[in-house]
Write a structure and sequence with these properties.
The structure holds two protein chains of two kinds. Chain A is 83% helix and 0% strand. Chain A has six helices and no strands. Chain A starts with a helix and ends with a helix. Classes of the chains: A mainly alpha, B mainly alpha.
Chain lengths: 98, 238
């Protein structure tokens, strides 16, 4: 682990570049064409869904059922309540041996 | 206008509270794993302070712990954090009230929940510095504290999975994404991302499912929403 500080420093710089890079590219191009604006508007739904999606294929049955249940809960309940119910449900299912 | 500043700050506090609950366990788990892999407490904290992105911090530590070279750890960090380029391109449109230095600081704390909360806020009203930096500072500080707690006391949590802690983030992102369902192209975009990310997860494997699944959904958003009324609506707050 002797290179760890090098990775900490360069990893921080590279990560910051990803966080500022998209804005710099758009600022350089200037006016955003309608199609690009529609693409940017789709970013949150697209990326956040891509983070969650694999739970349906990677998890066991408690996770799959819980994520589907939380999908419906999130239509009616506040975000925090959905998170607590989903997490507790999975913890109970695991404790019960599923 | 101190009144509006106070109300912006209060709104940020309300929005960030559940998210803290979601990221603190993750940060504690990170700290515990980092120290368990042979990092000093200072190194574990250095990662959280400089990179501030949990999944990539864990992945880099795993690679280095397995004897991988520096470049492969760095490549993994970039791959896992590449989604931030997309966040940044979208978020820049909402930072009209920020100076150059404030923008530079704002992008430093642009992690998933900050992005989600700021996008939701910007879709309702202009994004203020009070809201953004209150939210961002709390997330950043919370992540550092959680990392420290994990690094110091981590060995006490023997099995985070038993408490469902590994499930907190997926559920959180799911609930967050559903808050965007009123946006024009939500369903075609989300369904595309869902299918492609699962497919990539099963074939290429992580972390590519995030970038490729995300790009597929964005492409659909551009194709479906790139003309007519929807486009005018989306450029309206640019």
């Amino acid at each position: 682990m002797h290179d760890i500080w090098l990775v900490i420093a360069l990893g921080g710089v590279l990560t910051y570049l990803t966080r500022v890079g998209g804005h710099l590219i758009v600022a350089r191009i200037g006016q955003i064409p309608p199609r690009a604006a529609a693409a940017l508007d789709a970013v949150p739904a697209a990326v956040l869904t891509a983070i969650v999606g694999p739970v349906l294929v990677s998890g066991d049955w408690p996770e799959r059922i819980a994520i589907l249940a939380c999908l419906f809960l999130s239509l009616r309940l506040p975000l925090i309540v959905t998170v607590v119910i989903g997490t507790a449900g999975v913890a109970f299912a695991r404790a019960a041996g599923f | 206008m101190p009144d509006s500043r106070r109300s912006e700050r209060a709104a940020a506090l309300r929005a960030v509270a559940p998210v803290l609950l979601a990221i603190m366990p993750f940060g504690i788990v990170y700290g515990a794993i980092a120290v368990g892999s042979g990092l000093t407490i200072l190194q574990a904290m250095g990662f959280s302070v400089s990179v501030f992105a949990g999944a990539s911090q864990l992945a880099a530590i795993q690679i280095l712990g397995a004897g991988g070279p520096v470049w492969s750890a760095l490549l993994t960090i970039v791959a896992l954090n590449f989604r931030h380029v997309l966040y940044s391109a979208s978020m820049g449109r909402h930072l009209g009230r920020f100076s150059a230095v404030e923008k530079a600081a704002a992008f430093y704390v642009l992690v998933d929940p900050v992005f989600g909360a700021a996008e939701v806020r910007a879709s309702e009203r202009p994004l203020t510095k009070s809201f953004y930096f209150t939210y961002g500072a709390i997330i950043y500080t919370g992540w550092q504290i959680a990392s420290l707690i994990g690094a110091v006391f981590g060995s006490l949590i023997e099995d985070p999975k038993a408490f469902g802690l590994d499930f907190v983030l997926p559920v959180y992102f799911l609930a967050l994404v559903m808050t965007f369902r009123k946006r024009g192209q939500f369903y075609p975009v989300a369904l595309t991302s869902l299918l492609v990310s699962m497919l990539v997860y099963l074939t290429l494997g992580p972390p590519w499912h995030v970038s490729i699944g995300g790009l597929a959904g964005i492409a659909v958003g551009a194709m479906v929403g790139g003309s007519g009324e929807a486009a005018e609506e989306t450029t309206g707050h640019a």
